C-alpha cells in the first residue's frame, strides 16, 4: 500500500518547516520507501508498518505543537510493490509519446 499524508502543526505560527521536518525524519528513518514533496509525504509498505510510521510522525509533531492536522490518502493494492516508482514511470512513459 502507498499512503500519502500531510501533518501540519496548528497554533505555532506560519513557519512550520521545523515541525514538519520532525515528521519527515520519522518516515525516512523507518527504512520504508518514501518520497516527500511540497504537499505530502508518501510511504510504501504493509498496512501495519505504514500506519505505524504515520502514527509516529504525527506523534513527533504533536510533542511540540498544541494541535495537529493530519490529511491521509491510501492506495491499498495487495501484491503490488515499488508502486512509488512504477506509477510515476507509467505516467512519464505516456508523456514521452
Automatic annotation (TrEMBL):
Domain Thiamine-binding protein span(s) in chain numbering: 3-92
One Pfam family here: Thiamine_BP
SUPFAM superfamilies: MTH1187/YkoF-like
Family (UniProt): Belongs to the UPF0045 family.
Designated name of the protein: MTH1187 family thiamine-binding protein
Classification of source organism: Bacteria, Bacillati, Actinomycetota, Actinomycetes, Kitasatosporales
Amino acid at each position: 500500500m502507498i499512503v500519502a499524508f500531510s501533518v501540519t502543526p496548528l497554533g505555532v505560527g506560519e513557519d512550520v518547516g521545523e515541525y514538519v521536518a520532525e515528521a519527515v525524519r520519522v518516515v525516512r528513518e523507518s527504512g520504508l520507501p518514501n518520497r516527500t514533496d511540497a504537499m505530502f509525504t508518501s510511504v510504501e509498505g504493509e498496512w501495519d508498518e505504514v500506519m505505524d510510521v504515520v502514527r509516529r510522525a504525527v506523534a513527533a509533531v504533536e510533542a511540540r505543537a498544541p494541535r495537529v492536522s493530519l490529511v491521509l490518502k491510501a492506495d491499498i493494492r495487495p501484491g503490488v510493490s515499488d508502486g512509488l516508482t512504477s506509477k510515476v514511470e507509467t505516467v512519464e512513459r505516456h508523456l514521452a509519446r
